[in-house]
Amino acid sequence: MSRTPSDDRDNVYTWPFERQLHETLPALDEAQSAWLSQVDSLLAPDRKTHELIRLVCMVIQRNPLGVRRHAMLAREVGASWEDVLGSIMLTCPAFGLLGAAEAIEHARAGYDAAPEVGEDDQDLDTDTEE
Fold first, then answer.
1. DSSP conformation class of 45
2. Buried b / exposed e along 51-80 (16+ C-beta atoms within 10 A)
3. 28-49 residue pLDDT tens
């Protein structure tokens, strides 16, 4: 079976809806991608806090795919499981226990799917004496 250019595009979509969005409204898809790239490039807060905030937003929206993705990304930038779980539980006072409880399994799946960050990776921003 020969591959077509569209076969290669299958691997670039993060969310199930993206392919359809790209095929039906490519300019909107490109604009959204550019906008999200700018959000991802914010220098503050730090990347770990950035991902934990986005994780909390996904918990509040009850978006299991988003919870999984941002738990994975949070781990990739150095968040511990305690950071992820604590962030989820902070949603309880305002948004209730059920949404947080439902999010835990999705967050755990995403967290476990991420490669572990080594100690060297976590300390990249520290200055060392030469």
1. S
2. bbebbbebbeeebbebbbbbbbbbbbbbbe
3. 878 878 887 888 787 889 999 9
Size of the chain in residues:
130
Q: Please tell me the distance from the alpha carbon of residue 123 to that of residue 70, in angstroms, as a whole number.
A: 21
| Neighbour count for residue 86 (Cβ, 10 Å) | 12
- Within its chain, how far is the Cα of 44 from the centroid? 16
Judged against a pLDDT cut of 80, whether residue 58 lies above it is answered with: yes
Higher per-residue confidence, 61 vs 130: 61
Contacts for 115 with CB less than 8 Å, ≥ 6 apart: 76
Task: Supply the mean pLDDT for the chain.
Answer: 82
Average pLDDT over residues 63-89: 97
Residue 98 has pLDDT above 70, yes or no: yes
Q: Domain extents for the chain?
A: 16-43, 46-116
Give the integer Cα–Cα distance in Å for 69 and 51.
Answer: 9
Using alpha carbons, select from 58, 47, 46, 38 the residue that is nearest to residue 100.
Answer: 58
